[in-house]
Amino acid sequence: MTAPRETPAWRRLFGPATLFLLPALLFLGVFLAYPALYSVVRSLFDASGSQFVGLGNYTRMFTDDRTLVAIRNTGIWVLVAPALVTGLGLVFAVLTERVRWATAFRVLLFMPMAISLFASGIIFRLVYDENPDRGVVNAAVVTVHDVFASPSEYPGARPRGDELAEDTALGGFTTTRAYTVGETAALPLVGIRPGEMPEQAAPAAVPDAAEGTIEGVVWLDIALGGEAGTVDDGENGMPRMTIEALRDGQVAATTTSGDDGRFTLTGLGAGEYEIHLTADNFTEPFRGLTWLGPTLVTPVIISSWVWIMTGFAITFIAAGLAAIPRDALEAARVDGATEWQVFRKITIPLLGPLLLVVFVTLMINVLKIFDLVFVIAPGSVQADASVVALRMWQVSFGAGGNQGLGSALVVLLLVLVLPIMYFNIRRFRRERS
Predict the structure, then answer these.
(1) Alpha carbons 384 and 295: distance in angstroms, whole number
(2) Which CATH number fits domain 35-132+292-432: 1.10.3720.10, 2.30.42.10, 3.30.390.30, 2.10.10.90?
(3) Which of 41, 175, 329, 409 could make a disulfide contact with 275, Cβ separation 3.0–4.6 Å?
(4) Which of the four pLDDT bands, split at 50, 70 and 90, describes residue 423?
């Protein structure tokens, strides 16, 4: 009986399995291996690609301030965003595990994944708009702020004529002359549209002089068809104006104007007093925070990415929770363990491998973040919010047009991703063995 012939090596190499995998291998070679190798080679040449510069692009990359900012921001993303999303996904998945409407809640949180990052960026660009009339966040912040601190009534108002002058020491405006008890002061202001006056504003009238007090009126002197500096028909007083009497720079009396703008300063002794309209009357109202400014733009963009990706983490972690043996959890509860102890000592250890998969996947996703930063960050602060992927695009295809330096940034991204991929491959092999 003859022994079976040994299959030639070339047939084992080019057998049916290889032929089956050949389309995928060609695809990976053309669209992955070749671009990666070409980027490495291209990073060694200048912007035009005609002159070999060796490691010059890498030297320039690590000495350029904007590139260093992009690398720093990428580090912040890698350290903060995946951990935050994984933690929130774990918390929400555990909290909703026993809730009857848990599926609807998870679907609701997963819905942002159906929106492209570009569209999500446009949404959050509007959400964090500095104008509270458009930006939802600033509208909420201003509303809460105004509950505890009343906004000023007359921002932008200024004196008419020379009766009042800006007070550089105290702020606001102070009269240019002094008044004695029994005198009357008429203080005209402009800079406010009649339609912006408080609803209770009533027609202004000059009060009569009274003994023991300083009477006065502060009004909006629109002077339409009338005389500037005098109270004319149709001109309203400025209510709720805080007014002080100053003597030697010290406050001697304080009062508030009525609906018709009239006020009375009482409790004054003999002598001369200046009348001061306090700065609180004229300060600009609180308009919220500059969320898309250089300081807060990176946390804002990270928050938008967290909103998008939390549903992804919840879906995977919820599936892992469903696979945990209930016997172990119930046994711990019977032994007297609290829910926190069950979560910390049983749930998290059993979910450890899954949490690691989610975390590593999110980390790889973060390293190539581009769309959100490009759309959300205004042009004036894109350099402050830049990440490596965005900086690579700007250098290669933006105003710089330096594809040699851009290729060096691509190689940097590849170097950052390789350790993560190596860690993943080792873990997969360890689990299979």
Answers:
(1) 8
(2) 1.10.3720.10
(3) 175
(4) confident
What ranges make up the beta strands (E) of 242-356?
242-247, 250-256, 262-265, 272-277
Range 283-310 average pLDDT: 90
- The predicted-structure confidence for 285-296, as pLDDT tens digits, reads as follows 888 889 999 999
Kindly provide the residue ranges of all beta strands, DSSP E only, lying in 47-178, ordered along the sequence.
158-159, 164-166, 173-175
Q: Which two tokens stand for residue 319?
A: 């599936």
Distance between CA atoms of residues 288 and 122, nearest Å: 20
Beta-bridged to residue 276, according to DSSP, are 174, 244
Render pLDDT for 188-206 as a digit per residue (tens, 0 to 9). Answer: 999 888 888 888 999 998 8
pLDDT of amino acid 3: 55
Mean pLDDT score of the chain, rounded to an integer?
87
User: Pick from 422, 399, 423, 397: which is nearest to 410 by CA?
Assistant: 397
Spatial separation of the C-alpha atoms in residues 327 and 305, rounded to whole Å: 37
Task: Locate 83 and state its tokens.
Answer: 């951990």
Using alpha carbons only, what angle is made at residue 332 by residues 329 and 335, rounded to the nearest 5 degrees? 150
Pick the closest to residue 244 from 174, 184, 153 (CA basis). Answer: 174
Position 362: which residue type?
L
User: What's the gap between Cα 282 and its chain centre?
Assistant: 29
Which part of the chain has CATH 1.10.3720.10?
35-132+292-432
Measuring CA to CA, which residue among 72, 40, 71, 34 is closest to residue 57?
A: 40
